[in-house]
User: Which sequence fits this backbone?
């Protein structure tokens, strides 16, 4: 009882920070439930990934191996994990609420007949969990029944696991997957090319809204500031809806949730759905020409100004600061 | 092609949500109820598929109270052919909802089920994936493009860091993301016609599904309020305070 299986997602042979977040959250949950945390990696060839994962202080690493696990597909991964959960007797299965975690974990929960809590932000001492609802306007205390429970964690709500003194033992398991999973086929992945930091991992995020007026202005006005600050670029849903930028830049309730040290909101009015994605940032600065904009109600520092004048000026000021 | 579109009734996204003082729920006076925005995208996609193929049927489904008829009528006014309302007043968890929808799917035998990736009230993002597993069907979540060639379906998905394309044979489940389409408004003739379309109620208990929730919400709390800060007078001052006071640049 109380053991937690942590599904560690990998991308291009590496573990993103969000996977290390899952490990630390899994360790916290296991400790509060009196069990141990076991990290799981799934791949057609998981050996080197497993030894990397073993550095982060779990009781054990399970390397699930099967040719059908080469590319991520929900059906095959859910089958492999469900069989492992059953044979291991774990009480919880946990992953970070990335695109993959969100796709996989509910399918796994259904396969196990288990309840699932999505995007939790805290674990109480009594084992109840806290998760936001209604675009973050309510925090729900969740209680789950049954021998197995499934959980995803919000990446920004937990820290990342750090390397431990000694590596965990690795156990290789041949995954159980039936032929039916071949119904789903991976065709292609078109990666958005960018030298910028990843949105959910960046120390600074600069986001633009409908105030930018066009996709071209994102490029010519906002991007110089993003790059001068070494930041990741984000956008409001309004800017995505208007077709200025792709959806994977969307910060908000139905996009990405970020909590950087500094969040700069440019030409964003601050709809509830946007605030849901950034209000846990450490410091928020906002530039908007409408002094009544709701974004100013959460901003630590607000500047009422025309962004088309203020943003190029800010590029120069940041440049000066770096030179001084 | 027969398309099943499960929809949910949610508070209008523009509504300010307030938690009741006793933590038992949210204040629902003055709340305007609408179709979950992602489900509206699902209805639109279903209608476009039917229009493009020149034949087929779009069936709406919902699991909830009598009042949910309102949202189903709106979907019928958009152009869906008929609707099913699984009637219950009980608070169900996602597993129970997916089980009920799976029963409907077994009965209706759709070629594809399209639904929103998440409902904007509980933000769970679970039912589509659970339904896919219960039916043993492929799933394509967070879809931004859906294409067919006979019984083969190709979906472009919005994932972290780019776009993923997957392929599978029907029947299957697709959940919608924001950029899939822009939903139409119901036209006046559409609203008139919707009044005569079939809206069938099915008691939830009649479907023989275990409805006991395994997940319970013990209470709701309002989130901690973030204090508004102060206005600065110039870009120069903004950069200075971010550097000297907040020490973040």
Assistant:
């Amino acid at each position: 009882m109380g053991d937690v299986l942590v599904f560690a997602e990998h991308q291009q042979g590496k573990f993103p920070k969000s996977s290390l977040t899952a490990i630390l959250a899994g360790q916290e949950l296991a400790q509060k439930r009196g069990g141990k945390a076991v990290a799981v990696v799934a791949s057609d060839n998981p050996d080197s990934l497993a030894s990397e994962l073993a550095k982060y202080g779990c009781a054990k690493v399970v390397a699930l191996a099967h040719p059908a696990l080469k590319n991520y597909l929900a059906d095959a991964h859910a089958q492999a994990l469900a069989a492992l959960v059953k044979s291991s007797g774990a009480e919880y299965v946990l992953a970070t609420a990335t695109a993959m975690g969100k796709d996989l974990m509910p399918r796994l929960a259904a396969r196990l007949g288990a309840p699932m809590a999505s995007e939790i932000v805290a674990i109480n001492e009594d084992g109840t969990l806290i998760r936001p609802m209604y675009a973050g306007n309510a925090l729900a205390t969740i209680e789950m029944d049954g021998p197995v429970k499934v959980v995803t964690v919000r990446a920004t709500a937990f820290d990342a696991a750090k390397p431990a003194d000694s590596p965990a033992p690795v156990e290789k398991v041949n995954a159980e997957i039936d032929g039916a999973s071949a119904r789903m086929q991976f065709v292609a992945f078109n990666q958005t090319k960018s030298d910028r930091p990843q949105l959910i991992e960046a120390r600074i995020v600069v986001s633009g809204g409908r105030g930018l007026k066009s996709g071209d202005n994102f490029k010519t006005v906002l991007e110089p500031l993003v790059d001068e600050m070494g930041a990741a670029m984000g956008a409001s849903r309004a800017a995505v809806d208007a077709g200025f930028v792709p959806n994977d830049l969307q910060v908000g309730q139905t996009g990405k949730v970020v909590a950087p040290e500094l969040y700069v909101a440019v030409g964003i009015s601050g709809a509830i759905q946007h605030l849901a994605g950034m209000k846990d940032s450490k410091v928020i600065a906002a530039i908007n020409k409408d002094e009544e904009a709701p974004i100013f109600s959460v901003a630590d520092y607000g500047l009422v100004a025309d962004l088309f004048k203020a943003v190029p000026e800010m590029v120069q000021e940041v440049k000066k600061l770096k030179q001084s | 092609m027969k398309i099943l579109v499960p929809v949910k009734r949610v508070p209008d996204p523009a509504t300010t949500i307030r938690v009741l003082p006793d933590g038992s729920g949210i204040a629902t006076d003055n709340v305007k109820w609408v179709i979950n925005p992602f489900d509206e995208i699902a209805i639109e996609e279903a209608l476009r598929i039917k229009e493009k193929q020149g034949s087929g049927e779009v069936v709406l489904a919902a699991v909830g109270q009598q009042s949910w008829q309102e949202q189903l009528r709106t979907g019928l006014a958009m152009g869906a052919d008929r609707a099913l309302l699984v009637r219950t007043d009980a608070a169900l968890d996602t597993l129970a909802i997916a089980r009920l929808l799976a029963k409907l799917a077994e009965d209706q035998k759709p070629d594809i089920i399209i639904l929103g990736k998440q409902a904007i009230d509980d933000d769970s993002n679970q039912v589509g994936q659970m339904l896919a597993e219960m039916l043993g069907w492929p799933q394509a979540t967070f879809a931004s493009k859906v294409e067919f060639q006979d019984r083969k379906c190709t979906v472009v998905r919005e994932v972290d860091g780019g776009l993923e394309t997957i392929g599978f044979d029907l029947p299957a489940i697709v959940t919608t993301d924001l950029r899939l389409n822009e939903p139409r408004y119901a036209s006046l003739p559409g609203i008139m016609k919707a009044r005569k379309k079939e809206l069938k109620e099915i008691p939830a208990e009649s479907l023989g599904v275990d409805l006991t929730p395994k997940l319970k919400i013990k209470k709701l709390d309002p989130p901690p309020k973030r204090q508004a800060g102060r206005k600065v007078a110039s870009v120069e001052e903004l950069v200075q305070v971010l550097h000297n006071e907040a020490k973040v640049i």
Q: What stands out?
A: The two ends of chain B are 56 Å apart (CA to CA). Chain B has a mean pLDDT of 96.
